[in-house]
Design brief:
10 helices; alpha/beta
Length: 266
């Protein structure tokens, strides 16, 4: 019997999100996990990046949350998002701010937004691409010397642990963790490991300057917090350990600051 769920993969093998804006918003930003993501980024990014109001390229900007955050802090932002519905929602949400919305996938940016850019943000994008290694190389090529790339990816090791805690032992043992890109399911098609990011960054001349994990504990709770006090305690716990070994390595998302070194003077 054939799978009745339609494929949401592009000809290039990337997951696209046409018609999935509501599902995307609920899954990534809805409820406590969305609150934790935004609250932790609000505290981590100013510590992990040198933010000086420089122009910023937001790759796969989705509904515009991060672009808005950057614009509020004095950055002129180019938000790139190929999904029409999400890009239009972002445009409406960001009216009046210094954000330009661009209809372009990551692979087209060397032509559509070549830079070089002093600051690029690319959060929760690579795991939806058929070739994330090539995508990171593309991002590296857009960075100016001394430029910063804020990269966040879905953690394959955390996905494995989550499957084990749910009893999916055979699936975890076989390392069959990738989503198939069908229907409205939002399991990434290319979950990534820390070792992959470090190796690929080195291949394209980028240095890892800072790391953190988001949702280190939340996704493994047997019961969600029942009170506001418990929610505050969970946020405090996430913050306390989001950059501490070994805990950060099991965050649902891994957050990096990657730097293109300055070119030596001749």
């Amino acid at each position: 019997m054939s799978d009745p769920s339609p494929s949401c993969l592009s000809p290039a093998g990337d997951r696209h999100f046409d018609g999935l804006a509501d599902k995307f918003a609920a899954s990534l930003y809805g409820g406590l996990r969305g609150e934790l993501r935004l609250a932790l980024l609000d505290r981590l990014l100013p510590e992990m990046l040198a933010l000086q109001g420089q122009p910023a390229l937001e790759v796969g900007g989705g509904l515009g949350q991060l672009a808005g955050w950057l614009a509020e802090r004095g950055h002129v932002v180019t938000l790139c998002e190929p999904a029409d519905e999400m890009r239009e929602r972002a445009r409406k949400a960001l009216e009046g701010r210094r954000v330009h919305c661009l209809d372009a996938p990551l692979q087209a940016l060397p032509l559509e937004a070549p830079g070089p850019w002093p600051l690029i943000t690319c959060h929760a994008v690579l795991e939806w691409l058929g070739d994330p290694r090539a995508a990171l190389a593309t991002l590296a090529g857009l960075l100016a010397p001394g430029g910063q790339l804020s990269l966040m990816v879905f953690n394959r090791d955390a996905l494995r642990l989550s499957n084990v805690t749910k009893g999916n032992l055979t699936k975890a043992l076989a390392d069959q963790l990738e989503g198939q890109g069908r229907g409205k399911r939002l399991t990434p098609i290319s979950p990534l490991t820390h070792d992959q990011i470090v190796a690929w960054a080195g291949e394209v001349g980028l240095e890892v300057r800072a790391t953190a994990g988001l949702r280190v504990f939340h996704d493994y709770l047997h019961q969600p917090p029942h009170s506001e006090a418990e929610r505050r305690d969970l946020l405090a716990l996430e913050w306390q350990y989001c950059r501490v070994d070994p805990h950060w390595r099991l965050g649902r998302y891994l957050l990096y600051t990657l730097i293109r070194p300055e070119e030596p003077e001749r």
